Amino acid sequence: MSAPTTDTTRTAQPAGSSRAGMREHRLPKWAPAAVVGAALVVAVLLTLPFGAPVAGVAVLTAILAVGGIWLASRIVEGSRKATDRLVTALVTVAFLIAMVPLVSVVWTVVANGAARLDVQFFTHSMFRVVGEGGGALHALWGTVIVTGLATLISVPIGLLTAIYLVEYGRGRLARWITFLVDVMTGIPSIVAGLFIVAVFALLFRPGLQLGLMGGLALSVLMIPVVVRSCEEMLKLVPNELREASYALGVPKWRTIIKVVLRTAVGGIATGITLAVARVTGETAPLLLTVGLTAGLNFNPLEGKMATLPVYAYYQYTAPGVPPEFAIERAWTAVLLLIALVMGLNLLARVISRVFAPKAR
Amino acid sequence: MTTTATAARGEARREARARAGDRIFKGTSTAAGILILLILAAVAIFLLIQAIPALRAPAEEVMGGEGLLGYIAPLLFGTILSSVIALVIATPLAVGIALFISHYAPRRMAQGLGYAVDLLAAVPSIVYGLWGFTWLAPRLTPLYRWLSDNLGFIPLFAGPASPTGRTMFTAGVVLAVMILPIVTALSREVFLQTPRLHEEAALALGATRWETIRYAVIPYGRSGVVSAAMLGLGRALGETMAVAIVLSATGAVTFNLIGSTNPSTIPANIALTFPEATGLDVSVLIASGLVLFVITFGVNMLARWVVNRRAEFSGAN
């Protein structure tokens, strides 16, 4: 374990007895916190002439704190400990830096999107709406329909492939499928959109845009994700369960359905929910394949359809005159989208907790 | 006598049914696996078919009037430049975060912190686009002004600084944020796989935590980090909407990262141009998509190959 650090070695010693004898010089436990506090004060004082901008204070505090901890440790504890503390500080700063975009993304979206989060947004489409008012009812339905189609297509194919890989697949074919599924998870989403456009242009006519095409494009992106997560879950099912089932004379296919899938159902549901969450936010393929309409369209086989991400994109980039109403709608649509995706992620965690095997 | 006979017959029938069921089940699941290979092949084939008109067209009819290569090359330059910036920013950060989560954070917090980083992956790319446009870009403009004033002798920061902040560098930062979760998650995974005995041996020799990481964890995880970075590169190359919104593209080929003239990227260009494109233009865009597909496919394949090779030799599984 990585844990045995300065703290554990100290507690391992008999309290207070050998410390003086070993002549170990250590910074007290509160030293890092004190250094950070001092760095903050200095940074505020230094930037005060410039109005103490938050970003400037944060950057300066980080630099001063990292340098200060290193220096203090260097003087008291020696160079090896100092390097250790320096890396600890740097790694912590790296994590804090990563939290900046997360917090600011959520903050920006909520602050801008809350204005239009009203009833009208959920009850109206953009049909005959110019300027103020209007909503994203049609886009919400479009997202549900297109994502639903993608799920209907991807789950059977993905799950069956996972079953093939875990239960039947041996040899070269299985190895190639595993490898290419991994590679397929990295297909750019816009290429999936172009692929469906190319297919439909060849089979029907160029310039076609349908809800179904969007569903197909998303399923190209979703299938590999479903395969990967289902495969992991099926692998977790202990072999003893399968063997017990075979010993009772149950044929393999019934064993898979009644024993393997039933044991892994929680994990599979989690994986599928995460896969749905991943494609819900996809914009680029839908921009090419589904397009945008102002009104409700429930038929994926006929005409363009509005979806939340594409709706937000066009409201933002082509707001019309006056622009502020459309831009407000874009932010609210984006807020809805982010809530939907994070909600699905949360749901996945809940599912995995509910279905987690309790016998261990 | 008769009862055993009927029982045996029933048995045989049941067995035949079981065999048929097995055959059907195995057949469908194998077919599903093969279907995936076919889809992958179809992506390449259909894009190629639709790109043929663009390949055959005379140079002056292709958008921009300089032939297909002249159209795609600047885009490819922009795609690679933005992804490299993203990679340079994201990789060290991701390694740091991965180490923080796997080796530094209190054990009880580690999982929650991992979720927090994963949430970054859950944010849709269009949200990053709007965020980069309204939040990040204006906040980076003072930095750009400073860079062009003080470090203008470096070609990367030649300036003049863009007043909107919608520069190549901003696009790179947004991409870095977007690939951070995947690089972090994969690096964290390999760091956690380090054999515990290696780490304990290092600690027993009196190594500090950093020395343990330096001499036990990093040598073990190096190839994993390399492939994680490459998978991140694959993502960055194909990222569309964020770049389309953030980057103010003019099509110029320049290494100046902070100016207001920037090369576009292949995916962003497709997203921006496709909705109004017809005829040969569609074909040209599909050809550029094919180039993107081939490149990302190659990068991903190489990355996976590195991972798999490592998995075979590591003995971690």
TrEMBL record, chain A:
User: Could you tell me where this protein is found in the cell?
Assistant: Cell membrane
**Sequence segments annotated as region (Disordered):** 1-23
**Which residue numbers delimit the ABC transmembrane type-1 domain?**
140-348
List all membrane-crossing ranges. Answer: 30-48, 54-73, 85-110, 139-165, 177-204, 210-227, 259-279, 330-351
Mode of membrane association: Multi-pass membrane protein
In terms of superkingdom, the source organism counts as: Bacteria
Q: Name one GO cellular component term.
A: plasma membrane
Comp. bias intervals (Polar residues): 1-16
For this protein, the record's InterPro entries field holds: MetI-like, MetI-like_sf, Phosphate_PstA, Phosphate_transprt_permease
Example GO molecular function: phosphate transmembrane transporter activity
Query: What processes does the entry annotate via GO biological process terms?
Result: phosphate ion transmembrane transport
Keyword match Transport: yes
Keywords for this entry? Cell membrane, Membrane, Phosphate transport, Transmembrane, Transmembrane helix, Transport
**Is Mitochondrion given among the entry's keywords?**
no
Family, as annotated: Belongs to the binding-protein-dependent transport system permease family. CysTW subfamily.
Q: What does this protein do?
A: Part of the binding-protein-dependent transport system for phosphate; probably responsible for the translocation of the substrate across the membrane.
Entry-linked NCBIfam families: 3a0107s02c
Full protein name: Phosphate transport system permease protein PstA
Provenance organism? Kineococcus xinjiangensis
UniProtKB/TrEMBL annotation, chain B:
Q: Which residues form a coiled coil?
A: none
What CDD domains would the database entry show? Answer: TM_PBP2
**Alphabetized UniProt keyword annotations:** Cell membrane, Membrane, Phosphate transport, Transmembrane, Transmembrane helix, Transport
Matching entries from PROSITE patterns are given as:
ABC_TM1
Q: Which InterPro entries match?
A: MetI-like, MetI-like_sf, Phosphate_PstC, Phosphate_Transport_Permease
GO molecular function terms attached to this record? phosphate transmembrane transporter activity
A GO BP entry is:
phosphate ion transport
Q: Cite the SUPFAM superfamilies for this sequence.
A: MetI-like (SSF161098)
Topology of this chain in the membrane: Multi-pass membrane protein
Tell me where the transmembrane regions lie: 31-52, 72-101, 113-137, 167-186, 240-259, 282-303
Domain ABC transmembrane type-1, residue spans: 76-303
Pfam families according to UniProt: BPD_transp_1 (PF00528)
- Looking at the record's lineage, which domain of life comes first? Bacteria
**GO CC term, one of those recorded:** plasma membrane
Q: State the family it belongs to.
A: Belongs to the binding-protein-dependent transport system permease family. CysTW subfamily.
The UniProt function text for this chain reads: Part of the binding-protein-dependent transport system for phosphate; probably responsible for the translocation of the substrate across the membrane.
The name this protein goes by in its record: Phosphate transport system permease protein
From what organism does this protein derive?
Answer: Kineococcus xinjiangensis
Organism lineage: Bacteria, Bacillati, Actinomycetota, Actinomycetes, Kineosporiales
